[in-house]
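Now for one record:
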Amino acid sequence: MRLLHTSDWHLGRSFHRVNLLSAQEVFLDHLVATVRAERVDAVLVAGDVYDRAVPPLAAVELFDDALHRLAALGVPTVMISGNHDSPRRLGVGARVMERAGIHLRTTPGGSATPVVLTDRHGDVAIYGLPYLEPALVRDELGADQANHTSVLKAAADLVRADLAARPAGTRSVALAHAFVTGGVPCDSERDITVGGVAAVPAEVFAGIDYVALGHLHGCQTITERVRYSGSPLAYSFSEVAQRKSMWLVDLGPGGEIAAERVDCPVPRPLARIRGTLEELLADPSLERHEDAWVEATLTDPYRPEEPMARLATRFPHLLTLSFDPQGAEDDPLTSYAQRLRDRSDQQIAEDFVAHVRGTAPDERERAVLTEAFDAVRTRAVADEAVAR
């Protein structure tokens, strides 16, 4: 059985104020064309269909059009909600869509209800595990603890129990939206840390022939059977080196996996450039970036006059400009921002305690801080769920 694994469309998202809807439309054209050309048997969409819980109308229309086109091809599509999606909104009409071959899994209770497809080798059971917010789903799933590993293990246990009751030789596929150990994150993903820990071990999915992951935006192979497709478009400059693609997966008669990458269309390349203003304006090696979306970092000791406008004469698609002065006295605001870069809320809070008191927090105090951050985050998620 041939599967096309994709995720993290983030329909409605912009890139530094650049509207990406037309690029997302091109990607979906490419996806439909790939399904047709490669004779795909099922499409797997592993969450974050939309960029936010209440997406703009244009994004909803684009999604609707994509579903109609996939249904018209007669190719089943299995889709789960991600941490950016509103499960209830995305799941509206799920039972009706099922008749057209569009299978939405947006609730924990649906995790062990597979879409069963059949090829000449027998049945393939495809399970959809939507993004599981630990504090909200722990009781429903009967998980031991309110953390990602416990709730995903509980959901995977339900999958394994259902699979065990099926005829021998039934192959299995699961979609999940999570941060799995070994994955490499980037700047454009929303933090899902709970209890100071976000990652779950790949062993949670033991016994499943193929696991189609979503959440991380870089295409990655965690194990032969556990993979991220990544996002089809770049959503931050931290993705400058990523090759955007989907996985074309052939599932053999005994659960064997053969996977190859299908590249996605690139609306415009990304470039990160660094140097003094005069260097960036004159360096001939930067000519290849003149048509790219550009992030520039100026290293002039002091800020030059009108740097954005001057750089834009050479790089018309310049989107961001930052300063990292070299050879001048430290700017306290700049150095403070640098110290905070890539640090979690927990780390910043612990550093603040150490700075004010002179000693770092002990284990008990760290636990109190962790509990406080988790409580705030859980309350925010609960408030959002009520608003939905």
Observations:
- Residues 236 and 291 are 17 Å apart (CA to CA).
- The two ends are 37 Å apart (CA to CA).
